[in-house]
Structure formats: structure tokens, C-alpha cells
Amino acid sequence: MKQDATRNAAYTVDCEDYVHVVEFNPFESGDSGNLIAYGGNNFVVIGTCTFQEEEADIEGIQYKTLRTFHHGVRVDGIAWSPETRLNSLPPVIKFCTSAADMKIRLFTSDLQDKNEYKVLEGHTDFINGLVFDPKEGQEIASVSDDHTCRIWNLEGIQTAHFLLHSPGMSVCWHPEESFKLMVAEKNGTIRFYDLLAQQAILSLESEQMPLMSAHWCLKNTFKVGAVAGNDWLIWDITRSSYPQDKRPVHMDRACLFRWSTINENLFATTGYPGKMASQFQIHHLGHPQVMWRCLVAYVVLNLCFLLFSL
């Protein structure tokens, strides 16, 4: 890992190919380092990074690659399993990916001789989001352009299937609400499903399209955020099904919304990568101005480092 002052990026990691997706492990893994995965055209890399706030003898940040997995097709999404543990004997690395061939792959590794994967098939169009059950890690939820949300067990069998009214863009499974699932659709509707009754129990409306990304706040289960059109939108689900706050932020349409993992008022948005004016921005609900911004193309890894450690 090295500093790179010329592009306003804090640190960069040299990669042999394009990187399409980056995902920190949101669960406790039993190690002082933070697990990170990134995927490219035909690979997934698992590594650890440690910040100077965590280890006194580290200057800035320390990165180490643990294993590279051959994938064979472009990686579009990555989700970590809560079963991942680095302090067990042997260690357990478990994650799943969505790919350009419309399949989900479930990887399991001990970082030694055991490196297995299982293919989950059923979606008939591109998969836009996937997530593990955050409590036990025994199920995976996915949403797709095929207008479905599907729930799978680890054997690849579908245990639930929800028909949507438009492409599914995001799916969230909150650790404090493990019997509920949040699904965001491109038509601007966000629904919460009761997984025991297998039916929708609450819906939110953005009143604008296309809705490209939504996220359920980890630190406050009543807060939901999303980006639709050029705007970010925030809901308090105890008050209304319509946004309590929204603001235009990206000239060429917004692409991604993510809450901070430790601060319920802090979140990030991105515009579309490749656009001339596309930016990554950090926002605070208590401040009217954008707190920090830079070009999307330069901060794919760094935005993850920043959101994780704030």
C-alpha cells in the first residue's frame, strides 16, 4: 500500500486488472486487521488492512493479500458471511459473488488446501444486490433485473421468492431485524418484507426514478437512505412513507448510497464512474454542505477505507 498525493487519494493498491467491486467484511472476524475483498474481470482478492488507529507501530495503513480466487467471469457484487473467522483453526473465509453470467457463487476457504465454491442458479437477468443473513449466515438474499428477490440456503435451494414490480436494485438484511428484508426497486419503491409471513409489510416511495441504490442504516433501524435521479433521499420510517430530506448532489445522476457503519448521520454517495463530473461525496445530515468530495475513478478502495474507519 502506498501514498498517492497526485490524485487526492490517501492510499492505493496495485492491481493487475480492472476492479469492479470492493467490499469490507462488516462482521467481527476475530483478527485485528479488517478483511476486504475486491473483484475484477475474472478474480476475487481477499486481503486485510490495518489502520494506524488500530496498531501504534503502523504509519497510515497496512495492506496484505491473503488469497486470490479465480472467478472466470466478471465480478459484479460481493457479500461477506458472518461465519468468516480468522482466529479459528483452521481459519474460515466465506463470501458470495454475483457475476455477469447471472449466477451467484458461494466461496469457502481455509486459506490452505480447502478452496471450494458452489454455483447458485435461478436469476434470468443481471443481479444487482446480494447479502447474507447477518445472524447465522445460513441464507443469502439477492435482487435482479428479472424483477425478483430470491432467498437461497447454502445448498443453493431457493427458500423464498418475491415478485417485484421493476428491477431490484438493492437488498439489505439488518442484524437487529433479522426477520425482515429491505428491497429497493428501480421504479422508486422500497419495500420491507416479513420473512416469516413471506409478504410485504411496509413500503416507502421516492417519487422519482430511476432509484439506483438504497441502504438501511446500521446504527438506526428507522433510517433508510437512497439515491434516485440526481438526488439523495432520507426516510424516517416512523414518520412517513415519503422522504423527510432530499438534495441534488450529482449532475450526471447518482449511482450508489452507503451509510457509515458507526455514525447514523454520515453517509456517502457516488455518481456514475466514467462521467467527466462524476464524484464520490461524503455527507453529514447536520451540515448543509458536502463534507468531502473527489473524482470517483480515483477512490474506489479509499472510499471503503474511509467509510469503514470514520
UniProtKB/TrEMBL annotation:
PROSITE patterns: WD_REPEATS_1, WD_REPEATS_2, WD_REPEATS_REGION. It comes from the Eukaryota. It is found in: Chromosome, Centromere, Kinetochore; Nucleus, Nuclear pore complex. SMART domains: WD40. GO terms for biological process: cell division; chromosome segregation; mRNA transport; protein transport. Keywords: Cell cycle, Cell division, Centromere, Chromosome, Chromosome partition, Kinetochore, Mitosis, mRNA transport, Nuclear pore complex, Nucleus, Protein transport, Repeat, Translocation, Transport, WD repeat. The keyword Transport applies. InterPro entries: NUP37, WD40/YVTN_repeat-like_dom_sf, WD40_repeat_CS, WD40_repeat_dom_sf, WD40_rpt. GO terms for cellular component: kinetochore; nuclear pore outer ring. WD repeats lie at residues 120-155. It holds the Pfam family WD40. The keyword Protein transport applies. Component of the Nup107-160 subcomplex of the nuclear pore complex (NPC). The Nup107-160 subcomplex includes NUP160, NUP133, NUP107, NUP98, NUP85, NUP43, NUP37, SEH1 and SEC13. Component of the Nup107-160 subcomplex of the nuclear pore complex (NPC). The Nup107-160 subcomplex is required for the assembly of a functional NPC. The Nup107-160 subcomplex is also required for normal kinetochore microtubule attachment, mitotic progression and chromosome segregation. This is Nucleoporin Nup37. The lineage of its organism: Eukaryota, Metazoa, Chordata, Craniata, Vertebrata. The gene is NUP37.
